[in-house]
Prior knowledge:
8 strands
Amino acid sequence: MNVLSLFTGIGGLDLGLQRAGMTIAGQVEIDPWCRKILAKHWPEVPRHDDVRTAAGWWGGRAAPDVVAGGFPCQPVSIAGQKKAQDDDRWLWPEMASVIIRLRPAWVIAENVPGLYWRGLPDVLRDFARAGYRTRTGILPACAVGAPHPRSRVLILAHAKGLRCGTWSQERQRQRETPSEELEPARLSTAADRPWSAEPDVGRVAYGIPSGMDRLRGLGNAVVPQVAEHIGRLIMTADAA
Length: 240
């Protein structure tokens, strides 16, 4: 399965999906430092620098099987100003535009838990209007073996069957039927375990070249094990 990765960052989502057996066919990332990291690890993959023009850049190539991306979390993060759709960094509409134009069979969208209280209804509504069934839940990294919780909202969307003769009827049904949702933080009780604070290190990486870039890149990255878990679910479902 071919993947078009949006808001790629340093490639945590891509690495996990690749481990699950998928092929990274394209990457879209605006940060120059992150693109250097991607070029080192995926030298053969074509890259673009702006999600707003990504569909045009993709051009006439065959639609990817999967579009995946963690759109910017700052508008909905509890640590931010919580402006959601009123924040200039709210780029979900740009991701939705790519999905609508390229029509992948599968979509993976990732964000912080704050999305549950700010913005999620709009996201699910856009998926439904585009003809996608969705499943939403919060998956902590510790549920897949990481030594920290790092809970994230995952939205898995599927358009299987929407290109057949019953496309219009099925699309109308999707508009009338609410998307399925999981209760927040109920995917694994591992998220309820007590965790010690992060190591006592300064926020400045003294003596490390590009230290702040690395901290930012890691902080924005999807834990690869989480992406691999989701990728394997898709691969299994697609083969059924």
